[in-house]
Design brief:
Elements (H helix, E strand, L loop, with lengths): L1 H7 L2 H10 L10 H13 L9 H7 L8 H6 L5 H4 L7 H13 L12 H6 L9 H4 L5
Helix pairs in contact: 1-2
Length: 138
């Protein structure tokens, strides 16, 4: 359990191991999976909803359980990590669309996306709406 690792000061290693595991064996609604995310955020001492790249790496697949506020606060830093997620909640999809539509990410505005950009975003394309898709150059 995380508390066992916390006593040794290695909760980061515990959550790195959890983040590398297939957390999908627990349904997203499972209280144990939700508790893992809460405990991971406490272990990493995440300030508010600010997830940096180092913490995203430790969270691994637990990033897929972050709420829309965390995704928006990331200002695009989590987009590549979110690409590993099999599905999204509506709140997460909306946050991803909000971030991508601003153009203030490393990918730039949709009007400047290339085939390479689309390949990098390939796992996120299903969440894009018409307003974003129509901006992408043909």
């Amino acid at each position: 359990s995380p508390s066992d690792y916390a006593a040794t000061g290695s909760c980061r290693q515990f959550f790195t191991n959890v983040g590398e595991a297939n957390v999908d064996v627990l349904p997203r609604e499972d209280p144990q999976r939700q508790r893992l995310l809460v405990e991971a955020l406490e272990c990493l001492e995440v300030p508010g909803t600010q997830i940096n790249e180092e913490n995203a790496e430790v969270l691994g697949r637990l990033v897929c359980d972050l709420g829309g506020d965390y995704i928006r606060s990331s200002r695009g830093r989590l987009l590549k990590d979110l690409g590993q997620c099999g599905s999204f909640l509506p709140e997460q999809e909306e946050a991803i669309r909000d971030i991508l539509s601003t153009g203030n990410t490393t990918f730039g505005p949709p009007a400047a996306w290339s085939a390479f950009t689309l390949s990098q975003l390939s796992r996120l394309i299903p969440v894009l709406d018409h307003s974003i898709l129509q901006q992408i150059p043909k």
